[in-house]
Design goal:
The protein contains 2 helices and 14 strands, in the order αβββββββββββαβββ. The strands form 4 sheets. A 6-stranded antiparallel barrel has the order 2-4-7-8-9-13. The chain has a two-stranded antiparallel ribbon with strand order 1-14. Strand 8 and strand 9 form a beta hairpin. It is elongated and about 90 Å long. It starts with a helix and ends in a 24-residue tail after the last strand.
Length: about 260
Amino acid sequence: MNCPRRECLAPIGIFLVLASTRVALAQEPEGPQTVAPAPVALAPRPVLEHRGIPTANITVPAGTRVAVVLENGISTRSAKAGDSLYFRTSFPITQNNQIVIPVGSYLRGELLESKRPGRIRGRGEFRMRLNTLILPNGYTVDLNAVPRSADTGGKETMDPEGKVTSPGGKGKDAETVATTTVTGAGIGAIAAGAKGAGIGAGLGGLAGLGAVLLTRGPEAELPRGSTLDIVLERALTLEGSQIQYRHTGEFSPITPPPARPQ
């Protein structure tokens, strides 16, 4: 059948539109969806590798000296056995080019004994020991250390077992007796001449001796800010994974001990 070109193409176009509409309707699900779409699987994250962090233990050998600063003062005037003592490190300890005990680490100790000086004889003394080390990240280890030397600002002495002993008071006692003797002699001389001077001197000497008998000798003291060297009596074992610090401590000015009468 012969027909114009436009009239022949019109039915074909209508047929194609109807066919595409049917295909689209067939692909659409009937009614509302009740099943959630399948989740999209996420690619697994790569496992982070902790490289360069040692796991082997690190041993600080016995005999290592650690410089510390006293945070609370000690005096035999009020100290007693069992009192807690607090210190912080003032210089880092290194091993294999690595800081293992940073500046600013804390140490805790205790007084083992404390004795006041006597009124006639005996000196003030106390003995201490350090028991615990707390590193900046909170890692805590048992410690067994004693102080070997201290800068107290006074004349106290320290023995190898960490016992601090006050200076003797004999010079001060003699000065007290001499002063009261001279004072008594002067008063006696004014009152009754040479004879009175002798009597006054004797009375003054007795007064001075009485004052000495009623007064204790110098107390043993370590003021806050005293610097000490402590010595590890046994090897200190640290876990390698616990001594990775974000910072290795910051410098903190040392508060010098207060001036003390000589």
